User: What shape does this take?
Amino acid sequence: MPELNKGAVQRLDAAHHLHPFTDSRALRQKGARVIERGEGVYLWDAAGRRILDGMAGLWCVNLGYGRQELIEAAHAQLQQLPYYNLFFQTTHPPAATLAATLAGLLPGELQQLFFTGSGSECNDTVVRMVRHFWAQQGRPERRVIISRHNAYHGSTLAGASLGGMAPMHAQGGLPLPDMVHIDQPYHFGEGQGTDPDEFGLARARQLEQKILELGPERVAAFIGEPVQGAGGVIIPPASYWPEIQRICRKYDILLVVDEVICGFGRTGHWFASEYYGLQPDLLCMAKGITSGYIPLGAVAVGARVAEGLIDGGEFFHGFTWSGHPVACAVAQACIEVMKQEHIVERVHDDIGPYLQRRWASLGDHPLVGETRGLGLLAALELVADKTTLARFPEAAGAGLVCREHCFEQGLVMRAVGDTMIISPPLVISREQVDELVDKARRALDLTL
Ligand code: PLP
Assistant: This one.
């Protein structure tokens, strides 16, 4: 490809490129940020500025940029077999090997893997699997899937419908039928003044109320992110997940856990289901599975559903890129590096607690109403009044202002409304955590 300067890239981009999740008119006025290179936890933009990537891309570049092991795995597989499909009674070594490796890492009875190209495709696959499963059990009326308001499960029609993002539902007449939502366990935003565990139980019990309202015989599954990521790093009170699991079991509702963000060490465990003691029937993963180097997703399926699907004859579902050999080879290399470098243990024992300690120190800032986090996920809430914890009026846009100040400091931090969130690469060092927190504090000072 020819080398282009920043202005030329911006011109081509503005003329021809429609971006995801972007206000195109605003983008065209300002010109897009041009990111040219990455190394470790840093990015470099077209002006040569070094930027600490506090979001690991989109919660995915867990091993950081420029890992030769992953690049070499892709190169070797491209030479050996760049593509073959898994349809019609065929397999290839990278897909079979990766499925077995994942089965060895996953909790409980999750021993069967269905590969996809993304997190959204995982959730579409879940919808088709659970409905097909129940139909095979002679219960075709079990179709409804319950999820949460403000959840994020992707951008396909089923993913966005399972998700609970109101602006996404407003565009295109979503959700699809038989997808309903209960409230999220967001204590700071929706439960202030209540005991967190009481609040967690009350929110979990909405699941039971919804099941009874719909009729248990109609409900196929409940789906949730262990920690809601895109919704604002919402960490449920300890009482929440055990109660959800109890209710699912009581009514024989399948439990689906979306670990697209939480999987692969983000919370200090290979999967957050281990942390919360969950035994899901299905588990979705993507993003960190290849450290973001190449698209891949997978749905892990527990014994009961897998047996139902296997007995159910041909499953009329799949993608050209299901188990793409190059993606599977990169995922395999990624998992090997994670094991060799004890990445998950490091997040659990060392860098996770260190980041959480340093992040909590921002809690004394006059703009900060709460800090919270788990592993290498963290959030802070911007407030207009630290004593009453009153939030800014929506129009104030404090989160966006803070995000821009972060960027000027050379830090990517994301704003979800007035909730500032981070999810840095899992290989971040202590010095880089210090740099991240110092830059965040300066950005907060400038936002005041
Ligand atoms: N599920 C969760 C929890 C996610 O955070 C995301 C993306 O951020 C998705 C699903 C969708 O994944 P993708 O963008 O790969 O389709």
In short: The longest strand covers residues 368-374.
